[in-house]
Amino acid sequence: TPSGRNILRDAPKDHVHHHGLMFAISVNGCNFWEEFNKKYGKQITVTINPKQDNKNPKQDDKKTPDDTDSLVSELDWTDGGGKILLKEERKISVQKESDVTLLDWVTTLKTQDQKAILDKSNHHYFGLGMRFVESMDKSGQFFTDNEKNKFDIVRTDDRLTLCRWVAYRAKLGDAPVTVAIFGHKENPIPTMAFTKGESRSYAYLGITLNLHRKPVEMKPNSSLTFRYRVAVWDGEVKPETIENAFLKYAQR
Questions:
Q1: Per DSSP, which regions of 132-222 are E strands?
Q2: Poorest-confidence range of 11-15, 78-82, 174-178?
């Protein structure tokens, strides 16, 4: 949050494969979401900030303001046998304003000489999502850009809905915070919000790629880019404030 309060939780005991803010799907039948055994896939970091000269530690002083808080990484998505199914370029940028912290996540998935199926599974939550700190699990409220949006109950308290943005507000310790995720208008798959937490077992907020209903085939030597923004505020923020933040992002 703008005041420096952390909302994310890494590797909780109930789901050790939940890592703060994360992006994972299933490819060619290989699950990159879970990590319980060797058959699951791995996202292996190849480079971080490949354009940065690590021999010159003062180079950061020469960066433009737009690049100051950016992290660029290249990753290989490998199956259990080490075969590369996808390559990814990921850019994460953070911009701090007086009343909101903004994080942009851009993932470009690339095939090589073989096609890849972003494939159907029974998991309706694959995509970008976040796991919150424990104090936010049992006190929150989910909402979207349209109060008339209907949540499709998929499993117990797992819900999906088409929207432009989805938000969650809850108490972090003794004081509330609000977090929202925006999907970019140029994404190849419309924004489908995934929320979990009505039963108060734990709270989860994300945007699914809806692959459990409609798989996507990537041709050889092709790419797909997914763009998202996460916005975090201190306090309880009204939908109008979130909508204004979304509209600024939509103009990019």
A1: 141-144, 152-155, 158-162, 165-172, 175-183, 192-196, 204-208, 216-218
A2: 11-15
